[in-house]
Specification:
- Helices cover about 40% and strands about 25% of the residues.
- The protein is built from 10 helices and 12 strands.
- Strands 6-9-10-3-11-12 form a 6-stranded mixed beta sheet, sandwiched between helices. A 4-stranded antiparallel beta sheet has the order 2-1-4-5. The protein has a two-stranded antiparallel ribbon with strand order 7-8.
- Strand 11 and strand 12 form a beta hairpin.
- The termini are far apart.
- The chain has one domain: P-loop containing nucleotide triphosphate hydrolases (Rossmann fold).
- The protein is α/β, with parallel strands linked by helices.
- The structure holds adenosine-5'-triphosphate and magnesium ion.
- Adenosine-5'-triphosphate (ATP) binds next to helix 1.
- The site of magnesium ion has 4 residues, from helix 1.
């Protein structure tokens, strides 16, 4: 049976400032959705709130995975429930190798009842699986012995995220700008990696991106525009082409009240969160 991730009327505040103002979004397993929207519109806020980041306060609304209330769960329990987030800015964990990190993460998700530190999946099986996934992603085996994200290039970080995805095979994956900083070949390799996982595990994928490029490989059936903290437009891939061609001015003109919200946020945080 395919699972459903359902977000209803989600409001999220950071430091008391409301960023998301009632987001509605439903994903079914096996579906690919793209979430687009100008800088600062709240895309990363949505993914952090769904993953349970402590700074992101849900003030109203619900998020359920197959009827289970995600918002009442700790971050690791959300992962066990089948949710995965590839961060826009992955953090490094000095002292923990990629292999070690993944063995723990995979054990957590596949053996949800095990106690921390006990009963890890067997080293032999794990190594074999890791090697196969790394080969598929075109990653050097040496990479598994490095500390997670420590000194990784932008592209290496993104590949490491997709390697996690491949090993964890979640029901739902949110990929926050997984294409940013990737060279032309890497976008294709990483996308093919995502597609393979999505096919194997029937993962429902939410691709957050600014550009059409990655969506030429990971093809969305549904495209949404987040603007001023709300999803204002939903449709098919034609939306991506429209945005590439015309940018967001027509969205601002169509939703003047939310455009005001956008201006306020800009004043609240003049540096903004630009994506380079
Ligand atoms: N920790 C924080 N403290 C204060 N403001 C924050 C914090 N995190 C996010 N914000 C603000 O929330 C708003 C939404 O940010 P968010 O990162 O969700 O945008 P985004 O849509 O992902 O943008 P981008 O396309 O640039 O990645 C921005 O105005 C941002 O400055
Ligand atoms: Mg973002």
């Amino acid at each position: 049976m395919s699972k459903v991730l359902k977000i209803s009327n989600l409001h999220v505040a950071i430091d008391g400032k409301e960023i998301l103002k009632g987001v509605d979004l439903t994903l079914r397993q096996g579906e690919v959705h793209a979430l687009m929207g100008p800088n600062g519109s709240g895309k990363s806020t949505l993914s952090y709130a769904l993953m349970g980041h402590p700074n992101y306060e849900v003030t109203e609304g619900t998020a359920t995975l197959d009827g289970v209330d995600l918002l009442g769960l700790e971050a690791d329990e959300r992962a066990k429930a089948g949710l995965f987030l590839a961060f826009q800015y992955p953090t490094s964990i000095p002292g923990v190798t990629v292999a070690n990190f993944l063995r723990h993460a995979v054990s957590n998700v596949r053996k949800p009842d095990r106690k921390e530190g006990e009963d890890l999946i067997s080293m032999r099986d794990f190594r074999k699986e890791l090697r196969a996934e790394m080969d598929e992603l075109g990653m050097d085996q040496e990479f598994a012995r490095r500390y997670l994200n420590e000194g990784f290039s932008g592209g290496e970080k993104k590949r490491a995220e997709v390697l996690q995805l491949a090993m964890l095979r979640p029901a739902f994956a949110i990929l926050d700008e997984t294409d940013s900083g990737l060279d032309i070949d890497a976008v294709r390799i990483v996308s093919e990696g995502v597609n393979k996982v999505a096919e194997k595990a029937s993962t429902g994928v939410l691709v957050i991106t600014h550009y059409q490029r990655i969506l030429n490989y990971i093809k969305p059936q549904f495209v949404h525009i987040l603007f001023g903290g709300r999803i204002v437009e939903s449709g098919g891939p034609e939306i991506v082409q429209l945005l590439e061609r015309e940018g967001y001015d027509w969205v601002r003109a169509k939703y003047p009240d939310l455009a005001k919200v956008e201006d306020e946020l800009e004043q609240h945080n003049p540096a903004g969160q630009l994506t380079f």
